[in-house]
Design goal:
heterodimer, A: mainly beta, Immunoglobulin-like, seven-stranded mixed beta sheet, four-stranded antiparallel beta sheet, 0% helix, globular, B: mainly beta, six-stranded mixed beta sheet, five-stranded antiparallel beta sheet, 11 strands
């Protein structure tokens, strides 16, 4: 069966510090991968999605970046965090054949920038 | 760009009452998906609707996709405290280029 891992579960970082969040998927090949951010009590904002290694699409301009160094690994990074980067970061995967496949979410990382 | 709206934003019901949330897209959708997020948790896929006018049921939950494929609804019959959470709709636009989540409807069920 497929599983998706995210770490860390919680993170408190000072403004201006770097960020690296990692997401890995097991049990599937060539998945579509997604990074979302959810502000407290709000909806899901799609940040990045990837249909393959090295292929990243950005949905919103920001100081975050994403990379996909391996088929089942998706990394979210920042060189300098802003206060507005606080939120709940969710990684998700879906089948890579048809865009309409459902998305499976990881447990998320709660990031607080102070 | 494609926008997906949901109403109501919040709903408080007494246990046993029915609940409905509505999802409306600014563009025609190729499909609609529904997710549930429990407080403190991550979204969990519930169902996907693809066909115009499609209706699907999961126990007390009934999902409907509009004829024009621009709106959808989720109806819960006789709510239970386990139904508490935020319900999101999400959809791909007709050409499969954009996938957008609605802002969600937060359901509270009072025992």
């Amino acid at each position: 069966s497929q599983t998706i891992h995210q770490w860390p579960a919680t993170l408190v970082q000072p403004v201006g510090s770097p960020l690296s969040l990692e997401c890995t998927v097991e049990g599937t090949s060539n998945p579509n991968l997604y990074w979302y951010r959810q502000a407290a009590g709000r909806g899901l904002q799609l940040l990045f999605y990837s249909v393959g290694i090295g292929q990243i699409s950005s949905e919103v301009p920001q100081n975050l970046s994403a990379s996909r160094p391996q088929d089942r690994q998706f990394i979210l990074s920042s060189k300098k965090l802003l206060l507005s980067d606080s939120g709940f970061y969710l990684c998700a995967w879906s089948g890579g054949v048809y865009e309409g496949n459902e998305q499976f979410f990881g447990p998320g990382t709660r990031l607080t920038v102070l | 760009g494609q926008q997906v709206m949901q109403i109501p934003q919040y709903q408080h019901v007494q246990e046993g009452e029915d609940f409905t949330t509505y999802c409306n897209s600014s563009t025609t959708l190729s499909n609609i998906q529904w997710y549930k997020q429990r407080p403190g948790g991550h979204p969990v896929f519930l169902i996907q609707l693809v066909k115009s006018g499609e209706v699907k049921k999961q126990k007390r939950l009934t999902f409907q996709f509009g004829e024009a494929k621009k709106n959808s609804s989720l109806h819960i019959t006789a709510t239970q405290t386990t139904d508490v959470g935020t319900y999101f709709c999400a959809g791909w636009n007709y050409y499969g280029q954009n996938f957008v989540f609605g802002p969600g409807t937060r359901l509270s069920v009072l025992p």
